[in-house]
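Quick one: structure for this chain?
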Amino acid sequence: MTSLVLTVRETLRYRGAIGQWSWVLHRLTGVGVALFLALHVVDTSWAVFYPDLYVKAIAAYQSPIFTIGEFGLVFAVVYHAFNGLRIIIFDWNPQLWRHQARAAVAVLLFTCILLAPVFLGMLGHVIDFYVHESAIASHKMLDVVVFSILEQLPFIAGFVAVLAASIVLAALYSLVRGEPGVQSRQLSSSPVEKFWWSFMRVSGIAIVPLVFGHLAIMHVVQGVFDITAAQNVTGTLAVNGEIGGVPSAVEFVYHRWSYAAGGVFIWRIYDLFLLVLVVLHGFNGLRYVLTDYTSGHDFARRTAVAFCTVMAAVLLALGAAALFVPLEKKIIEEAMFATAEVYELRGEELPVALQAYLDEHDE
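Got it. Here's what it folds into:
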């Protein structure tokens, strides 16, 4: 903690110009994306395992507080990607580092140029949802915001549980090694660390087209407001809402992961590659950040490493399980009952088709 406070204080005092602030922004955006990644993998798995919870999670994402956060997320991903490519290029040819200031400015410029049309497209979805569709009654807006905050409590509990497990693992490791864990130690270069250094650069290049493709589909072409709309599911031949009484986020995922071209579930494979690369890249990057600020205490450093390792393992296992489990249409039925609760929460009248569907399937 002392190291973290010292870093924050000296960052504000140090006049390192654009190079310093690009370093700070790269770390902040990386940590932000990693934390969202954990949230995203868990809630997407709910589409398969707990359909009612996934419907409510998407309803939370469609609330004003998360709408603002979505713009911040897209900025973080795009800036981190461009700045990461800058770092990779300069590491490949160290002589270019003398141009790092101009390159850092170029990264900001390219980020703004790309995000201008992207944000306009996203804003169009927001206006359609809140203004044209009036999907949330004005007198229910506060209820929706409170609901959105409360929906995050399970994720907070999960983080606390992983942190507790990490502390236990660090303590057991210290007992086995028989070290007091109070003196900092400069870690020597090792083959493992050299591997991760190389992995961060190779995976960074591979991730960019995958992540940008995912952003384009899930935040621009069909944003979070469109996955509950009656329209074609991008990349498939299906229409959301053709199975359930009304379109739902669960049916959107069902059609996307059920779509096969030539017997190949292309979106499952796409998401699997994205899951593995992003989780390993993201939480190894988080490990770098956390160990920087816990270098003065061995036990804290080991806890940080354990936390990142456990989180990555849990997310990989959970995400892979959701991708490979056989999909059954009954998850859409469960989603319809949760959808009715969302309509009530937002002060919307229950569609006739949804009411008929509920009456038909109500036991």
